[in-house]
Amino acid sequence: MAIPSLKAHVTELLTKKLIASNERLFSPSHLAEIFIQIRTEWGLPRSLTFNKFRDLALETKTLQEVEFTSTYPLRTTRFHRGEFSAYELALSLRPRSYLSHGTAAFLHGLTDRQPEFVHVNQEQSAKQRSGSLTQAGLNRAFSGKQRQSNFIVTHKKTRIMLLNGKDTGELGVEEIIGARGEALKITNVERTLIDIAVRPGYAGGAKSVLVTYGRALQKIAASRLAAMIEKLDYVYPYHQAIGFYLQRAGLDFKSLTNLRNLELKYDFFLEHGMKKTRFDSRWRIHYPHDLPELEG
After folding, report:
1. Pair 109, 225 in one domain
2. pTM (2 decimals)?
3. 8 occurs within a structural domain
4. Coil vs helix vs strand at 65
5. Across 156-288, where does the E strand assignment appear?
6. 156 in the Ramachandran plot: left (φ > 0), alpha (ψ -120 to 50) or beta?
7. Which of 14, 129, 178, 241 has a CA that sits 20 to 30 A from residue 58's CA?
8. Do the Cβ atoms of 272 and 241 come closer than 8 Å?
9. Is residue 137 part of a domain?
């Protein structure tokens, strides 16, 4: 390890760099970049390797390692400087990730229900669509439970669900400032409403999704939702679910023309595995029998 004078000098330089970065969580690669910057700028001896530099940061508690477990191998480490939010940790675990589904709905103030998990999505690589849609195929696909991610990362009382979503080019993803002043990548309101209609299980189920839609009505336009769902180009006709939620939440039927123009070719389902349902002929959609009735 470095001699005492060098040890103090390196610790001081690292502390300055960390403060200047305005970040609280660091990956090994990010820490390596900082190490190279410090060694280049200040001509530190070659004997000070990255491993020694990292150990020095931990020994002096300039940085501390974040302790977490995961249900699948994550093969990564995170270091922190001071307190950090669960959302910062979730976003740091994988590159190009953003907060989504129930977590996004909560942070946008569309629900008072804090999700059991922090939902963080990393998009998959683009895939070609295969096969054709049939009514029989739809019936089979929605007869069972919604598939949910089992990739859970746990840090103290925080549980983070890692999602692998459809390639969208981060359509509808924005940056907001969190309660701790941290920058958070997150789906905007329109994209969040689409995501929770596609995967209602990540937002508490259809009843909770309906409440979320009701609270979002003053923040969105049905035309923007229609344009976004068309760009997302899903195989399944999720626009029928979105139109149903919007109307059931109180939006005037005439304002939903753009969604209805996307075709109503199949009978669809509001969520997976429903046992007792009703049918809305206007949107050709099966929905839970105990979902609240239309307003007005």
Report:
1. yes
2. 0.92
3. yes
4. strand
5. 158-165, 173-177, 183-187, 268-269, 277-280, 285-288
6. left
7. 178
8. no
9. no
